[in-house]
Design a protein that fits this description.
The complex is a heterodimer of chains A (111) and B (115). Chain A is mostly beta strands. Helices cover 0% and strands 59% of the residues of chain A. In chain A, strands 2, 4, 5, 9, 10 and 11 form a 6-stranded mixed sheet that branches. In chain A, a hairpin with a 3-residue loop joins strand 7 (62-66) and strand 8. Chain A starts with a strand and ends with a strand. Chain B is mainly beta. In chain B, strand 5 and strand 6 (56-57) form a beta hairpin. The chains are: A mainly beta (111), B mainly beta (115). Chain A binds chain B through residues 31-32, 34, 36, 41-46, 49, 87, 89, 91, 96-99, 101-104, and chain B through 1, 4, 31, 33, 41-45, 48, 58, 90, 92, 94, 96, 101-109, 111.
């Protein structure tokens, strides 16, 4: 069964303090791994799709990386506006169009 | 990416009633999905709605409770029937755009509270 585990559940950082969020996955053939940002009361906002081990993508202060077992979302010099819940999801070849979401990491950046 | 809207954005309903949520997309899409996000939880897929065919429901979700319509390639509705307080959640629709990226884009959600 496909599984996605995110850690930590919550992370509080000082403005400018870089860190990483982890997404560990177990799937029967990875078709794609997705990162989303979700603000309270809103729908998830798409950030990145990664397809193969070694792939990296960047957007502003965020960089996503992928290995065969996990993905990291690195946040460099975060600002208070980066505070949100970050969701990881995976799509496997055995699941048609269904994607499985992790439980998310709640990131809080203090000014 | 597609622009997705949902109506209503929020509602407060009485136990035993039904609510229909609308999802409108600004471009034609084949795959549309309905998710539930209970308070403090992550997203759970309710069903996949393809135009021209019956919706496919995930384990734990049934058509009598969550009937879905998909009349065309830009619109879908989800009805939450015979509601109870346990149905209080955010309901989200998403679309998978053509082009082979498999990426899903989400609407803003409908926040439902059942009293």
């Amino acid at each position: 069964e496909d599984q996605v585990t995110q850690s930590p559940e919550a992370l509080r950082l000082q403005e400018g303090e870089s860190s990483s969020l982890n997404c560990s996955y177990t799937v029967s053939g990875l078709r794609g791994l997705f990162w989303y940002r979700q603000d309270p009361g809103k729908g998830p906002e798409f950030l990145f799709t990664l397809y193969s081990a070694g792939e990296e993508k960047e957007k502003e202060r965020l960089k996503a990386t992928l290995t065969k077992k996990e993905s990291f979302l690195h946040i460099t010099a975060p600002k208070p506006e980066d505070s949100a819940t970050y969701l990881c999801a995976v799509h496997s070849y055995s699941s048609a169009s269904k994607i499985i979401f992790g439980s998310g990491t709640r990131l809080s950046i203090r000014p | 990416s597609a622009v997705i809207s949902q109506k209503p954005s929020r509602d407060i309903c009485q136990r035993g009633t039904s609510l229909t949520i609308q999802c409108q997309v600004d471009s034609q899409v084949t795959m549309m999905f309905w998710y539930r996000q209970q308070p403090g939880q992550s997203l759970t897929l309710i069903a996949t709605a393809n135009q021209g065919s019956e919706a496919t429901y995930e384990s734990g979700f049934v058509i009598d409770k969550f009937p879905i319509s998909r009349p065309n390639l830009t619109f879908s509705t989800l009805t939450v029937s015979n509601m109870s307080p346990e149905d209080s959640s955010i309901y989200l629709c998403s679309v998978e755009q053509a082009g082979g990226t498999d990426t899903q884009y989400f609407g803003p959600g409908t926040r439902l509270t059942v009293l």
